[in-house]
Amino acid sequence: MSSDTSHISKSSLSCAKSFLSKKKYGRSFANFLLFLKLSPHKQSEVIDDFIHCMTEWTNQLISEERIDDLFKCYDQACEILPDCESILNNIGAQLFRLGYIEEAALYIRRSIQINPDYTAARQNLENVCSHLVERWHFRMLNDVRRNCAYRIAIRRAAQRGHRSVLDIGSGTGILSLFAMKAGIPEIHACEKSKTMCEIANDVFRANKAQDTIDLICKTSTDILIPDDIPDRVSLIVTETFDAALFGENIVSTVQHALQNLMIPLNPTVIPCGATIYVCPIECETIRNKNRFLFSGLQNVDIAYIPIHCTTGSRVDPYTTENLSTLRGSYKPLADPVILTKVNFTSLEELDILCSGIQWDADVDVTKCGKLDAIALWFDLHLDEDISISTDPTNKNCWEQAIYPVLPSNFCYCQNGQVQNNYQIRSGSKLHLCFTLDGNYLHLNSCQVKDSDIMSCDVEMAENFVLQNYHDPVLLERTEISKLNNLDMNRIYCQAIEKFVIKGESENVSVLDMCLELSLLTIQLLKQGISHATVLARKEVHNDIIRIAMNNDLDLSCLFIEDNVRSVSNLHNLLVCDIIDTCGALRQQILEDIALLRVTSLTKEGRVMPGRVTIHGVCVESVDLQMDSAVINDEVTLGFTVAKFMNDFQMTTHVDIDLLELSHRKLSSPFELLTFDLNEEISELHPPSFENGK
């Protein structure tokens, strides 16, 4: 290296570090690139700083929506360091968050090829795979009863003379294979997912169907005649349904097919129709996940701040559960009633559904209990004789749609008194109002119609809802569950109280690394700590301030940040929740704790919890296998599918509740590892817990 080049190299490195310390990430990134280009043999000396700089710079570009510059940044980094597994994995993770799923998979796979033992990349790849090939594909393919029903219905259609078929949302192409087996000569399959099309191509070749089935990688609404298919077909087969029937755009999809892709005379759709059932239920598990149950926590008053779950909103009208395995089970408060019936072969009816429609149902309550949700399921009529059901009493691949009953859609008055404890009694009538709007079925209202309720009571109830539940705090189900966990809140409060009593400093400050809406900080400030900082997502910052003001707190004692690198004050105690509700370690949590210990804790500062012990148990579970892989080719009725689908099987499962999972224990619980979050920090080495030791 010439003296001039050496000088430029040293100067660029100095500038890179200087700009990095000043958080001028773009200029720092450019100087790091120059240094690495001039001194590639020294990359090990700066790789950690470069990765940190690149992460911050690309996050900034994303926040500023400078996507073209972001991709240039990726190209520049990969040109300089083409074999850095961390950079490739980080790029893949960012692309995944931006919605570039297939491109993300490409980068993460390259990262794993370089370092097969790179755990973070393997976890990211599983996340990507679960989006490329969603888990329900496995459950459906393993459902032999469902497969047999479709095979018989398609065979009967072929026997009635159908000679052409379009398989909409074909996935692996199994319904098209049934059509081939039934002898239908003209078969077209359309699937919008490139990944699923690649799998289907492999499946068709393995089953010698590549010359018989025409695979089109696009949505059915984009298919043109004669560009994509030569002529209109007489038969449509599909299973593009979700747990509430309509959520996969089935109405508009079939409407378009009837208008544009099917023969006008006696077109046949499999399924030909559906019957939808609703049932009010009591279920503590659903209640705890979807409804904040208290008017306050210790020292904190939130009686006049409505806290609602996002489930039930216009954009997220329902959730799903497998009622047959739900923790604590559930209690039907009435017999199921039919909400409506849908005819998928009637273009006139589909036109009405597409324009929006309201359905009402009156339910006779037969059991006293708390009205926690309206459960919904349906019978899918493949033809006039063959049906499959998502009824929770039948073992199948389906979950049920759950509409939580919330303050915004339920309240009633009796004798002039507002009743909002959700308690309903046997003999009451429950009036349910649903609307189908934009391919989603919404629960608009639940109204109790007792014989002794007067019209003035109904009006009072409606006014109460309007006056008391506007401008709510909207939280995810996981956040609602945490707020309802009084035991956890009490344990944290008691532990912090002990820390304060034992502490040498009179002015105790707390850094709450909750990442979500936290009432713990408000509780601690009410108890008299000097100041607190909350690390939480931006969406809840105003909600935290609102609750603090409602409790007459001095806002000068409360600091709110959304980035670990933005925390400026020193604190005596760092409170964190390192385990996500799904059961996995929070992403990046150990690295963030290590950084905050250095930058934001006093020398005597502590982390709470200080020690974490992770336990495991060996289990055998057929249900877990059914959710993660195609069991064998027998479940797909002899067609070769498992070999190709199982390239995307999961090896790590999160959000598993052993009380809900059917399993057999193969061992007693055992300790996997323990790490100390308060271990002494060396200036030369990161803490052992950051390295997973």
UniProtKB/TrEMBL annotation:
<keyword id="KW-0489">Methyltransferase</keyword>
<dbReference type="GO" id="GO:0042054">
    <property type="term" value="F:histone methyltransferase activity"/>
</dbReference>
<keyword id="KW-0802">TPR repeat</keyword>
<dbReference type="InterPro" id="IPR025799">
    <property type="entry name" value="Arg_MeTrfase"/>
</dbReference>
<dbReference type="GO" id="GO:0005634">
    <property type="term" value="C:nucleus"/>
</dbReference>
<feature type="repeat" description="TPR">
    <location>
        <begin position="85"/>
        <end position="118"/>
    </location>
</feature>
<dbReference type="Pfam" id="PF06325">
    <property type="entry name" value="PrmA"/>
</dbReference>
<dbReference type="GO" id="GO:0032259">
    <property type="term" value="P:methylation"/>
</dbReference>
<dbReference type="InterPro" id="IPR029063">
    <property type="entry name" value="SAM-dependent_MTases_sf"/>
</dbReference>
<dbReference type="InterPro" id="IPR019734">
    <property type="entry name" value="TPR_rpt"/>
</dbReference>
<dbReference type="GO" id="GO:0035243">
    <property type="term" value="F:protein-arginine omega-N symmetric methyltransferase activity"/>
</dbReference>
<keyword id="KW-0808">Transferase</keyword>
<protein>
    <submittedName>
        <fullName>PRMT9</fullName>
        <ecNumber>2.1.1.320</ecNumber>
    </submittedName>
</protein>
<dbReference type="InterPro" id="IPR011990">
    <property type="entry name" value="TPR-like_helical_dom_sf"/>
</dbReference>
<keyword id="KW-0949">S-adenosyl-L-methionine</keyword>
